[in-house]
Each structure stands twice: as structure tokens, then as C-alpha cells.
Write a structure and sequence with these properties.
The complex is a heterodimer of chains A (810) and B (272). Chain A has 810 residues and is of the alpha/beta class. Chain A contains 27 helices and 32 strands. Chain A has a seven-stranded mixed β-sheet with strand order 25-26-24-23-28-31-32, with helices on both faces. A five-stranded parallel β-sheet of chain A has the order 8-13-16-1-17. Chain A is elongated and about 160 Å long. Chain B has 272 residues and is of the alpha/beta class. In chain B, 46% of the residues are buried. The chains are: A alpha/beta (810), B alpha/beta (272). The interface between A and B is large, with 46 and 39 residues.
């Protein structure tokens, strides 16, 4: 790199063409085709970030989650995912996550964790079990054995009733009393000739006969009341006997089938406990399994609790059997190692899961089968990658993530529940313990904002992985970059790139970094360039991508985006916008600015003019006066004012009024890269020494007149070059740049060629004095004397004017 | 055929299982395009009891309570109104015209003409799920000049229609026609049960085929055991939804009918 330092050139003299663009020499690359190179071991220049991520992965304590910050395109996602996948592959696979019905409280579904891959097996086993029971249970209740036992139960209780009521009826009839059914119950009445005795007949009976009847009736009545009091108890006993018979019948049918299911899960107590609950529930709800033609209760009876006639086929039946299903919300079957999950839409529900609903007859219903996993469930036991900007912008995703990380569990709630704005009853699935490492990928700006304004952020994301946007262009780095190119080519299934093409891509990377001594780590731009060059090779029917295709892809991209730039160039050529590239003018200079159009930037020459007159020492920035100048531009103007005062105001008052303006500029102006040009224009106006218009100038200046580096040097030089070339290169034209920007030069090949041909020049300057001499061709002392004389003149005239105003001698 | 049915009369009261009876009657009225007429009997016996000074009724819900005429009448009216509503709903459901009347008296107060068809329930409402007092309608069905249906409290939609034949006389023909018609209604099965001697009569099979021609039914013929108890057991064991019996050929029918009704769990149609 020593050949591009200050000692490699002389300020004030044109740079040698070799300094205008640092080439990547293909002959120094030890391969012929990119396909010969092995994959890059890591991403270029991201050692610091990789180290941070790896450290976070080793830390198992709470809060060691990662925020990967860096500019887009620097390979944050790729690096993070590569590191995570490498580590995850060596870790154990987490269990399958299932939700099953909680038979004790269906509103709170139970969680079941099964070894990876066994969740689906349990779901299938349960389906098989229920399918078989739907056949086996009706068959069990159709058997003669059941019917006979049921008959016994019915007869037993029927006999009980008939014995009691029949006995009463019989004893009453022996005493001339009949038992009659009333609309509500039973009554006893004396009878005569088979009919209830009439009142007149009763009244006509002898006293002792009436008394006897009343006594007999009272006794029978007492007996009837005693029987009736016993009836509810008999009913209960009957129901319970019938239920017990049903339970026994069901239990026998269920036991063998569910035993087969149990056999596969002997080492999983939670599953066995669940199967016990299933067995109990089936016994209690056997009627769900029986078809409408199930054995009716024995004839003549309206027994309580026998197998009821409920449909066991169709949608209604399916709804009832849903409670025996197993909802496998995370199936890790087939996975090797821990999961690495990227959620590209990190909303609240996509992160913590949701409970969906079904519309049934106008109502929304739900059950545990409608629980859906979120990204946290899928990543549990592993790693979760999220885009920070999307997370923050998404609906309550950030709040949901923080809550889960803080509590250490995933609680599936609707957003309304989480915000405590809903009062409807819904499911409360059993929370799941959370063991996940989260990596947020985002911009540095968001990282600093969260650090400052979110008090939870620092404790939850303790590791920052800071990504470089450039890397030093050493020999090793160049070779590593070549391997990165080879890796991308392979990964993207592109044609092989030959050595020249690879070298050109590396040069373009330096150009993207805006620095001949650095390479850009923005892989997005590089990938696009490789893909587009590959397409051009395909169009040309080539098997290998050469430098022509790379150049073609670069040019094509510029051409696609330079419409506005070309329009401005055209208007300058037509003199609609005045830019002089020849002759000399007092108080006028060509400044240079940069226009960014999407991911392209172009240099734009601007005519800067200065006017001076007698005044009170003000330098007016017209851009600022009309609110088109930004603060950095104003700062530059104030600095040059400071320079003026320092150099010329020590022995005299600065009795001038100066104004500076970007001519034909109708938009905002910011940055201080034109401050040197503005100072040159001002000094020219003061000294009345004309400035050569064949030059354009860029650079900022300090109060001591030292020229400082600016950004976009390449685009600015090329912008002025294009103007000059359009009007015809004279050999005198060129751009004066800060000497400290020489190392940044990665100019286009046509600019370098023009310099080699002596048609264009790039001249470094170190100080204002050096630049002014270059621009005017006049020694600086002469210029300074002229300025001093002009200022003295202004001061004398100002003093005379002041005396005249005060009424003194002129 | 039973003949032209002018009305299907359904006998109702406050203590019987009325709903299934009304449904069976409405179905038949719709099939025969007859008028459905409900007769609700306000039980004279109950009112006579209520007049007595010591009249009390015992219920499961409230235990023993005094039974007054006013309370008895109120309860009867409530049941009459409920029966009327059920009858109206069933008639609307089957698209038949209907009428309803309340008669104070005994079961025998239901007036039936030869051109009517009587439907009555076989069960009273149970006390405590099991105990039922005896059916009230024997006094009207046994002397009824019209054919009648004794409706079981639970409607059976499946199973064969059974027809018990004694001879090839006019009553047997009517019973067979009615059974075939009701079996044909669902494209179902008809099981004809007859004594061996009848089945062995020359031309019986042809006679049977002739009578059943035009009905889309599957017919089986079974022989009736000679012993009366075995006969009833044989009928009970059949998987049937309706038993059809001709009445005038069987002198012992009243007693046997009660036994059959007590033991089968389906409707019984008696063809006069």
C-alpha cells in the first residue's frame, strides 16, 4: 500500500495514471477458473461479528441473545445462519410438541412432549384406536351377553317397582281400595262395583264403615307415600347399575385395544397418564361410539343411562371424536440436530402461535386441535433468526418476543387476551418452556435506538455482532475474496468465472467501497454482478464468464440507472445549465456534488460564484438564506469565513460583504465538500484574479487552509470528465482533489485512459494556497497582496463613509 | 283393504303416553288421506275421587297433597291443551286436516264409527321409570266396530311388518292387504305367519301371491306354532315394527291381544 501514500505523488502535480485506479492483477491470482478454488472458510472481514455470535452460542445463560448489526448486503443473514446451522447440527434434536385434550378441563389443553418423531406416531395410534373402538364398542353392546345382563338389570328394578306397587295395589284391593293414576302421580280411592265410590254413596255408609274405609285408606296412603319416597333411590340405583354394566362392557372392549397403544409408550409417563384419561373418558361417554340402532333398553322400560342413540357417523360424530385426537404442533421427525428457524413475518401470532376457530351454525368454536405453533415453538430447543426492522414494525411481535424471553415460556394467547382487552372465554393451552437462542438481524441505527429507548433490550440481547461493510485490500484478502466469489458461483449454480473476470469483480468491489485500499463486504451487490455477468455469458453462448461479461454487466447496470444523469449531462452540453470547461472567470469555479439514484451515484458539476462588496464582514450563504442549505454546508461556509478572518483580518477590519451561491441549483445542498471551491471563488472575487474554468474542484477546508478528504471522489471526477469529453477534451482539463483522497481513487477505465493519453488530469492539493495557484496560475503571494489591498480599500472607504455619516471630515 | 277411512280417531287422556300415539295416528291419516281427530278424555273417575273428603294424591316431586276438584280439573285442562298442541303439530307435519274435542267420561266415552280408524296408546306414563298402571283403552278398543292400532310408546322405523293369518276369509284378506300396504310404504319386508294347516291348503301360495301382487315387498311365510304361548313367543321374537292381526276369526282374541301388546315392543294393528 505504500505506493499509494502521500509519498507516491506530489501535491499540485497531476497524478500518474497508475494512481487513478488500483488494478487487481489477474496474473497474481493463482487459478485459471473460479471452479478451482475451494469454498471460503468464512465471510470476508466479519471475524469480529462471527466471534460475537459464537460466543453468544456458547453462553447458555438467559439473555445471551444476539443482535447482528450492519449495513444490508453485508452477509449478516448468511453468516448467522451458517454459524447457527453448524452448531445446531451437533446438538440434540428437541422433542415433538403436541397438544391433547384435557379431559378434566377442556379449556386448558395439555401439552405432551414426545421424543422427536414420535408425535405423529401417537396421533396415528390414537386415530387407529378410536376407529377401532367405533367398531368394537357397538359390537360389544350388540352381543347377547350384554343384552342378557341388561335384561337382568332392568328386570331387577322393574321387579322392585312392581313388587312394591303391585303389593300395595293387591292389599288395597282386598280392602276395597283402588290405586288410580292421576295426571301428576297416584291416588287411592274406595271403590264400588269396579268404580270409584261416589261421594253420596260414601256419605250414606254407616259411621263405622266410613271410619274403617278412612283408616284403611290412611294406612294404604302411608304405604304409598313410603314407596314413593323410595322411588328416587331406586331410580338412582337403577341408573348406577346400568352405568356400571355399561362401564364394564366398555372397559372390557377398551382395555385390550388401549393396552396395545400403551405398549408403545411405556417409557413416557405423561403419555401413559394421558391414555389413562382417554380410557376413563371413553368409559364415561360410551354413547358417543354407539350408532342410533344401538341396543335399546329392554322392552317396556325407559331406563336411565343405557347406551344412548347418538349418531356415530358424519360431521357431528367427527366433532365429538376430535377430543381424542393428538395435535402435533411441532414435528421434529426427520430432523438432525437442533432447529434453525427463520421467520420472515414476525408478527405476534406468527411468533407465539395462535388458536384458530371454526364457524359452526353462526358461532365460532375452537378446541385444542386448532392450536397452531408459532416460530418460537418451531425453534424451541434451537435457534430463531428474525429481521429486527420487521419485528419492530410488525403487530406486537416485539412485545410478544420480549414477554416469552423474559418469562422463559411460550404462552399461546390471542392478542386481545395478551392486551387484556378481551373478555370472551377461549382456550388456555398449557405453556411450553422456552429454550431458544434468538438472533435479530438489523441496522445499526435500530440497534442504537433500542439500546437507548427500550429498557428490556440490553438484558435480553446482550451480544452485539457488528458487521463490517469493508475490509482492507491486502493480498490475502484479495485471494479470500476470490474464494468468496467462487463459493457464490457454486452456490448460485453460475458458470465458472475466469481469472480476469474474478479480478474485475474484485476491482468493482473496491469501487463499491469507494476506496482503492478496501474491498466492500456487501455481498448483495457482488452476487448481483456475478448473476448478471453469468446471464450475459449465457446470452453469448459462453461456458465461462470472462471480463467482458463482467464489464458488460457493470455498464448495463449503470445504463439502466443513469437516465437522469444523462439528462443533466445533455442539458449542460446544450448550455441550458452553464458549466464552463475553458477560459477563466473571476469569482466563478466548478464545484462537484454527488447525486444518489437508488444504488447508483453520479457526479454532478455545479457552478459556484462569489460576489464581494464593502460591508461589515459578513459572508452570506445564499443557499442557507433560502433554506436550501443543510447544516454541514453552513458549517463549511463559516469555516471559510474563519479562514478569511485568520489570514486577512489580523491587521484590518474585514469591511466586506460576500455572497456565495450554487448557480442553477434548485434543490437542497448539504455537506462540506464544496467549501474549498467556495473559498476559491471568494478569494478570486476578492483578488479579482480569474480562475481557470478547465478545472473542477472538490474538497473541504479547515480554518487554517488545509484541504481535507471528501466522499464520492470517483463519481465527482467522472462527472466532470463526462462533461469535458462531451465538449471535447483539451488536455488542460482536470479535477483538483484533496491529496488525502488519492487512495480512494478507483476511476473508470476511460478516465484512466484519457489521463494516460494526456487528455485529462487529476491533481491532488494539500492546501488552499496550492489549489489557488493551480486554479489561477498566479503565485499565492501575489493573490494575497491583491486581497489585502482590496480589503484595505474596503476598510478605508468604510471608515470614510462612517465619518461622513457622523458629520466629520471625509 | 281396511276400507275407506273417514277419520283417524286418536284416543288421548292425561295419564297415557300420548306423543307416540298422536304421531302414529297422524302418519296413518296422511297415508289414507283422512281427517285426524283427537278425543281427550277428562277422567270422570278422577273427578269423582276429588270430591271425596280424604282425597289425596302422591307425587314424586311433592309427596302427598290434597286432591281437590279444582286442582284436578286444572291439571286435566293443562294436559288436554298439551295434547291438542301435539296433535296440531303432528297434523301440520303430515299435512292432514285435524280436529280435537274434550269429553268428560271414561275411556269408553270415545265414540268410533265403522268408517273410523281408532288409534290408542298401550302405555300409561310411568311412575319412577318403571311402574305403569294398566292401559286405559281396552274398554274402547275391544268393543270397537272399527279397526284400530295400539301404538307402542316408542316408534320403530325398522323391521318387518308381521301379519298373523288364521284363514283366507274376508277379515284375513283385509289384514293381509293392510299389512302389505304398510310394508310397501317403506319398500320393506312382510312376514306372514299362519297355522301349518292353512299354509298346507291347496292354492294358498297362489292366493297369497295374488293378494300381494302390486306391492314392492319381500314376503316370507312362517308357520305358527300350535301351542298358544309358543305362538305369542314366536311373534315377540320376530324383528318387527308392526304386528297385524285379524280379529273376527279368533274367538280368544281379547285376552291374547292384551298379552301380545304387553310383550311386543311395536305397534299392533287389529283389522276388523
Amino acid at each position: 500500500m505504500a505506493d499509494r501514500g502521500p509519498e507516491a505523488f506530489t501535491s499540485g502535480e497531476p497524478l500518474s495514471p497508475a494512481l487513478l485506479r488500483r488494478r487487481c492483477a489477474p496474473e497474481e491470482l493463482p487459478f485459471a477458473l473460479s471452479s478451482e478454488l475451494a469454498d471460503a472458510p468464512a465471510q470476508l472481514g466479519q471475524e469480529r461479528a462471527a466471534e460475537a455470535v459464537e460466543f453468544a452460542l456458547r453462553m447458555r445463560q438467559k439473555g445471551y441473545n444476539v443482535y447482528a448489526l450492519g449495513p444490508p448486503g453485508t452477509g449478516r443473514h448468511q453468516l448467522v445462519e451458517d454459524l447457527l446451522r453448524r452448531r445446531a447440527a451437533a446438538e440434540s434434536t428437541p422433542p415433538d410438541l403436541c397438544y391433547v385434550n384435557n379431559f378434566a378441563d377442556p379449556q386448558k389443553p395439555r401439552r405432551l412432549d414426545l421424543p422427536a418423531g414420535q408425535g405423529a406416531g401417537l396421533a396415528a395410534a390414537m386415530k387407529k384406536l378410536i376407529d377401532e373402538l367405533r367398531i368394537a364398542l357397538p359390537a360389544a353392546f350388540e352381543r347377547d351377553e350384554y343384552r342378557a345382563r341388561r335384561e337382568v338389570v332392568e328386570q331387577q328394578f322393574k321387579g322392585h317397582n312392581e313388587e312394591a306397587f303391585g303389593g300395595l295395589q293387591k292389599s288395597a284391593e282386598a280392602k276395597g281400595i283402588t290405586l288410580i293414576r292421576t295426571p301428576m302421580g297416584l291416588a287411592l280411592a274406595p271403590q264400588r262395583d269396579g268404580k270409584v265410590m261416589q261421594r253420596e254413596d260414601f256419605d250414606a255408609l254407616p259411621e263405622d264403615e266410613r271410619k274403617r274405609i278412612e283408616t284403611d285408606l290412611a294406612a294404604a296412603q302411608t304405604e304409598l307415600e313410603t314407596i314413593m319416597r323410595q322411588v328416587p333411590q331406586w331410580e338412582r340405583e337403577h341408573r348406577e347399575a346400568a352405568r356400571e354394566l355399561n362401564r364394564e362392557t366398555t372397559g372390557f372392549a377398551v382395555a385390550s385395544l388401549i393396552g396395545e397403544t400403551r405398549a408403545g409408550y411405556g417409557d413416557l409417563p405423561d403419555v401413559l397418564e394421558y391414555l389413562d384419561a382417554v380410557e376413563r373418558d371413553i368409559k364415561e361417554n360410551v354413547d358417543d361410539f354407539l350408532p342410533p340402532s344401538a341396543p335399546a333398553s329392554p322392552q317396556g322400560q325407559q331406563a336411565e343411562g343405557p347406551p344412548a342413540a347418538t349418531p356415530s357417523e358424519g360431521p357431528a360424530a367427527e366433532m365429538r371424536f376430535r377430543r381424542y385426537q393428538v395435535n402435533v404442533i411441532v414435528d421434529n421427525g426427520g430432523r438432525q440436530g437442533a432447529p434453525v428457524v427463520y421467520e420472515d413475518n414476525p408478527t405476534y401470532q406468527n411468533l407465539v402461535g395462535r388458536v384458530e376457530h371454526l364457524a359452526r351454525f353462526g358461532a365460532l368454536i375452537t378446541d385444542f386441535n386448532l392450536i397452531l405453533a408459532g416460530a418460537l415453538h418451531r425453534a424451541n430447543g434451537g435457534y430463531l433468526i428474525l429481521d429486527a426492522e420487521r419485528l419492530i414494525a410488525g403487530t406486537f411481535g416485539w412485545q410478544g418476543l420480549k414477554r416469552a424471553l423474559q418469562s422463559g415460556e411460550i404462552r399461546i394467547e390471542s392478542l386481545e387476551q395478551a392486551l387484556a382487552v378481551a373478555s370472551t372465554v377461549t382456550l388456555q393451552p398449557e405453556p411450553i418452556a422456552l429454550d431458544v437462542k434468538v438472533v435479530l438481524v438489523g441496522s445499526p441505527t435500530l440497534y442504537y435506538l433500542l439500546s437507548q429507548h427500550d429498557e428490556d433490550f440490553a438484558s435480553l440481547f446482550k451480544i452485539a455482532a457488528d458487521f463490517n461493510d469493508r475490509v482492507a485490500r491486502s493480498g490475502d484478502a484479495t485471494l479470500l475474496y476470490a474464494r468468496v466469489i467462487a463459493t457464490i458461483v457454486r452456490r448460485e449454480h453460475l458458470r465458472a468465472f475466469d481469472r480476469d473476470a474474478v479480478a474485475r469483480v474484485i476491482e468493482q468491489s473496491a469501487r463499491l467501497a469507494g476506496d482503492s485500499e478496501r474491498l466492500s463486504t456487501s455481498m448483495r451487490s457482488t452476487i448481483e454482478l456475478l448473476q448478471e455477468a453469468d446471464q450475459l455469458a449465457a446470452d453469448a453462448g459462453k461456458e465461462v464468464v470472462g471480463v467482458a461479461e463482467v464489464e458488460g454487466a457493470i455498464d448495463a447496470k449503470i445504463r439502466r440507472g443513469d437516465r437522469i444523469y444523462r439528462r443533466m449531462q445533455e442539458e449542460i452540453g446544450r448550455r441550458t445549465i452553464r458549466i464552463e470547461t475553458d477560459g477563466a472567470e473571476i469569482g466563478q469555479i466548478n464545484g462537484l456534488s454527488v447525486i444518489s439514484l437508488g444504488d447508483l451515484a453520479f457526479g454532478n458539476p455545479t457552478r459556484i460564484t462569489a460576489q464581494v462588496r464593502m460591508g461589515r464582514g459578513e459572508v452570506v450563504d445564499i443557499e442557507r438564506e433560502v433554506q436550501l442549505g443543510g447544516p454541514l454546508h453552513s458549517k463549511g461556509v463559516l469555516i471559510l469565513t474563519g479562514f478569511l478572518g485568520g489570514r486577512f483580518g489580523q491587521t484590518r477590519p474585514l469591511s466586506l460583504h460576500a455572497s456565495l451561491v450554487f448557480e442553477q441549483s434548485y434543490g437542497g445542498v448539504d455537506g462540506d465538500s464544496a467549501s474549498a471551491a467556495e473559498l476559491f471563488a471568494l478569494l478570486s472575487a476578492l483578488s479579482e484574479v480569474p480562475i481557470r474554468q478547465c478545472f473542477a474542484v472538490t474538497g473541504s477546508v479547515d480554518q487554517h487552509g488545509v484541504i481535507q478528504a471528501i466522499g464520492g471522489a470517483n463519481e465527482k471526477i467522472e462527472g466532470f470528465f463526462d462533461i469535458c469529453r462531451a465538449g471535447g477534451l483539451t488536455g488542460r482539463q482536470g479535477v483538483i482533489i484533496p491529496a488525502s483522497n488519492v487512495k480512494h481513487l478507483m476511476l473508470r477505465a476511460d478516465v484512466v485512459a484519457a489521463a494516460e493519453a494526456g487528455q485529462f488530469q487529476v491533481i491532488p492539493m494539500a492546501t488552499i494556497d496550492q489549489g489557488l495557484e493551480l486554479l489561477t496560475g498566479v503565485p499565492i503571494d501575489t493573490i494575497n497582496q491583491k486581497i489585502a489591498a482590496r480589503l484595505d480599500d474596503f476598510a478605508a472607504k468604510a471608515a470614510a463613509l462612517a465619518r461622513a455619516v457622523a458629520g466629520g471630515p471625509p | 283393504m281396511i276400507g275407506t277411512i273417514r277419520r283417524v280417531v286418536v284416543a288421548l287422556d292425561a295419564v297415557s303416553e300420548n306423543r307416540a300415539t298422536i304421531d302414529a295416528a297422524a302418519r296413518l291419516a296422511a297415508r289414507w288421506k283422512s281427517r285426524l281427530h283427537g278425543v281427550f278424555i277428562e277422567d270422570d273417575e278422577l273427578l269423582r275421587l276429588a270430591v271425596l273428603p280424604f282425597a289425596r294424591q302422591v307425587t314424586l316431586g311433592f309427596g302427598a297433597e290434597t286432591l281437590t276438584v279444582v286442582a284436578a280439573e286444572r291439571q286435566l285442562r293443562a294436559y288436554a291443551e298439551r295434547s291438542r298442541s301435539q296433535l296440531a303439530a303432528a297434523a301440520r307435519g303430515h299435512g292432514v286436516e285435524w280436529s280435537f274435542e274434550t269429553v268428560r267420561g271414561t275411556a269408553g266415552s270415545v265414540s268410533v264409527a265403522t268408517s273410523d280408524f281408532l288409534v290408542a296408546g298401550t302405555s300409561t306414563r310411568p311412575i319412577g321409570g318403571h311402574f305403569r298402571v294398566e292401559c286405559r283403552w281396552w274398554s274402547v278398543v275391544e268393543p270397537s266396530p272399527a279397526s284400530f292400532l295400539l301404538a307402542h310408546r316408542e316408534t320403530r322405523a325398522q323391521g318387518a311388518v308381521v301379519c298373523v293369518l288364521r284363514s283366507r276369509g274376508p277379515a284375513s284378506e283385509r289384514a293381509l292387504d293392510a299389512a302389505a300396504q304398510l310394508a310397501d310404504n317403506d319398500g320393506g319386508r312382510l312376514t306372514v305367519i299362519c297355522p301349518p294347516e292353512l299354509a298346507a291348503e291347496p292354492g294358498f301360495t297362489d292366493w297369497l301371491s295374488q293378494r300381494l301382487a302390486g306391492h314392492a315387498i319381500r314376503t316370507e311365510v312362517e308357520l305358527l306354532p300350535a301351542e298358544p304361548t309358543a305362538q305369542i313367543r314366536h311373534i315377540v321374537e320376530l324383528d318387527c315394527r308392526l304386528v297385524t292381526i285379524e280379529s273376527d276369526a279368533d274367538q280368544a282374541l281379547p285376552g291374547r291381544l292384551r298379552e301380545i301388546v304387553a310383550r311386543v315392543s311395536c305397534d299392533v294393528l287389529v283389522v276388523r
